[in-house]
Hints:
Elements: E1 4-8, H1 16-28, E2 32-37, H2 50-62, H3 68-82, H4 89-96, H5 98-103, H6 110-118, H7 120-135, E3 140-142, H8 145-148, H9 165-169, E4 180-184, E5 187-189, E6 195-197, H10 203-214, E7 218-223, E8 244-246, H11 247-255, H12 266-271, E9 276-280, E10 289-292, E11 304-317, H13 327-337, E12 342-344, E13 351-357, H14 365-377, E14 381-394, H15 404-414, E15 421-424, E16 430-436, H16 440-452
Parallel strand pairs: 1-2, 1-7, 2-4, 3-4, 7-9, 8-10
Antiparallel strand pairs: 5-6, 9-10, 11-13, 11-14, 12-13, 14-16, 15-16
Helix pairs in contact: 2-3, 2-6, 4-7, 13-14, 15-16
Amino acid sequence: MQYLVCKFGGSSVATSEKIQQIVKILEQNPLRRCVVLSAPGKAPSYPVKVTDLLITATKKVLAGEDCSQEIRQITDRFTSIYRPLNLPEEIIQKILSDIDRRLSSDKSHPGKFRDLVVASGEDINSQLFAEYLNLLGMKASYISPLQAGLIVTPVFGDAQPIPDVSLKLASLKRLIPDQILVFPGFFGYTADGDVATFSRGGSDLTGSILAEALDVSEYENWTDVDGIFSAHPQMVDSPAQIQALTYREMRELSYIGFNVLHEEAVRPVMRKKIPIRLRNTNNIKNEGTLVVTERLPSQRDIIGIASGSGYCSFTLYKFLMNREKGFGRRLLSIFEDMDLSYEHCPSGVDNISVILDQDQLKPEAVNNIIRTITEELKPDDIRTEFGISLISVVGEGLIHKIGVLAQAAKALSSAGVNIKMINQGSSEMSIIFGIDTSDERKAVSALYKEFFSN
């Protein structure tokens, strides 16, 4: 199908002017027939996102506290956006009244209640926007996820679409030629008819699900940045914008530091090889970054440098460890039993390290880990280290290019950065270095200069 699905994030719907900008974008290309909206994000006069206000209101209600201040801020926010656009007051107030209905609903299941209330930001915004489009003479319909068939698992706050959800949503194909479909992001309905939200940022996933179901030519994701850059702008001055990269490269970049798209949003479009285009609502002339199955081999071998901090390591030393069957499995099972996930597990002949995101550790966790490992595996020594940053050199060209590891290691050495750990997966699409967090900015700058200066 030649149509496009367009998802607009919180910053893109934050003010009246931003809503008018969306209209311009839709008018620019009549094939943009399915619009997915987030709840309004921060704006100059509104420092708190609507979703955060709804979360606070939910917590207060469940605690038996008054939430009238938050609800007033939410209703004022929507009114400040749509009243200047001349949307009739009675329409605005009628749609906003749904918040009170949700707040007065059953609270016996806190998770269900939370999701019902928190999802109202996207739902109300989508209804108001559809009304505004019709006011302008652009035929549009608000599409309820329940009526459309966006069925999700009953995991409140972290729902997933059911396996055949795209088949249920495919009936929307008959509507799209005649009108613009306005669909709220971030949530679906369980088989029992309860609202269940995706994890935060889940509007990206909604757009991806619809792109697959409608079999569109492209999924546009509109935010407040021009696209994906070859390094984080906070680490490197004016990094180059990436024109095109593969789904696999984006996944590698987003794993460490590049929060460009909800991590689960890639899978639905990958199944049908639908391109994703990341674009800037405020800069329509910029074509953004295209994410595709395969890119031209003439483009850069190295596509980007990503980094992230807040990691720690547990390193075990044991003589003849390599002869002890099941040692690695038993080590990782200790972390699993403590409900901890690991990032990397580099090893030597008589040593092995487990790299973790240290944010998941509770105060007593480190002592418990060391004690359990000592009792069950009896290593000769255990060493822990905190304040580790991971730097990743990413690109499909790594598979064929010789000497990238040596080139990167030399650049880090010249910059005075000590390498604590090196890891390269079997896909050979990325090389990950573990370094001191104090050297993170220096390391990213050195690698960017090495691979992108020309």
